[in-house]
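Researcher: Next sequence.
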Amino acid sequence: MTTLHEAAVTTAPAAPAGLSVWPASATEPHPGDLAVGGVPLAEVADRFGTPVYVLDEGEVRERCRTYRQAFPDAEVLYAAKAFLCRAMVRWTDEEGLGLDVCSAGELELAVTAGFPPERIVLHGNAKSPRDLETALRLGVGRIVIDSPVEIARLAAALGPDGRQQVLVRVVPGVAAGGHEKIRTGTEDQQFGLSLSDGHAQHAIARILDQPQLHLMGLHCHLGSQITSVKPYVTAVRRMVGLLARLRDQHGLVLPELDLGGGHGIAYRPGEPALDPAVLARRVRAELIAACAASGLPVPRLIIEPGRAIAGPAGIAVYHVLAVKRTGDHTFVAVDGGMSDNPRPALYGVRYAPRLIGRPVTAPLAPVTVVGRHCEAGDVLAEAELPADVHPGDLLAVPVAGAYQLAMASAYNLVGRPPVVAVHAGRARLLVRRESLADLSSRDVGV
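Model: Next structure:
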């Protein structure tokens, strides 16, 4: 029998030569070479230039299937904020997932790419009028109400004859997440409506007074990079408690419970990751037990993995521009950095880069891999690389598929990298490189 402690985390499966955090398709066809999806990464760099993001289509699809198999009775929504492009929309659609979007932009891209709007959920703590208008115009499946003002705005936008299914985002008072800036289940942040002070209950009462709004269930999101099952179990218990109170106060039995996402992944070998199968088993058991104790029917579960699907499928490839030795410290500067991956500067996270494209014979030595930008915080990794690393070498950084390009900027007017899909030995461009012409075209002043 699996104990709670054993169920909390799992480490990434073992793979040869330190490839545990790389896509399952990663191979070393020749010494110093590294291929993903049957395509050598050095070949991708040569063909498309660097920096470049490589996305393993097979890994994305397999991770979608893993969630569908782990949660067969639940609705699985891919959290588009992690990474979105038209190909990602198509892959998740074909694998049977819904979509969770946070803006009119994400929503319109998905729908124009052919995704059924009724399988899309819109949420966000500060939805603009355009966000809400676009959701209603396109016929989005559900809108997550995050603040009282959205109740009146939605009702007014719908008019007396309109109807919209909604969820209410509840703050369950559960602290979880890999960094204080990505913990969203506690009282001291801007998301959702508090359970402890009664704001969630008050908002629900207001929704029930609006015939245009059809309350389908409750929503919560605890944070990101969560590697323990326990916070989700606690959240289930508290959310079911609220469902029971709503039944007692309003005679209301809600059919849906959305537990959000935030499922942690390993960025470096040996780091913990959340196992979807273990999470599903524990959450389902707690949900059934809590509902039975309260005399409630079991609501349909909704989950929103994003990083856990896109993150491990992506690789960032850079060229080394300079190697600088200062005393005992060695800095390896690459042709990207915080403009294409702000996460290290925001959260202090670190990656595990690997030298590719040539055989390695020199011993490993500690280095700091830095970006090209004029910021002391532009650091990608503290790592060990071959002592003979030099300008012109290629570095590949795994687990680069989520919250990198999605949060990229044009800092220093450095264009954002392209995205290249690899699958079955073929590479194809999904998102082209942002050019200086792209950036200049927005500057209309003189």
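Model: The radius of gyration is 23 Å. Confidence is low (pLDDT under 50) at residues 1-16, 181-186.
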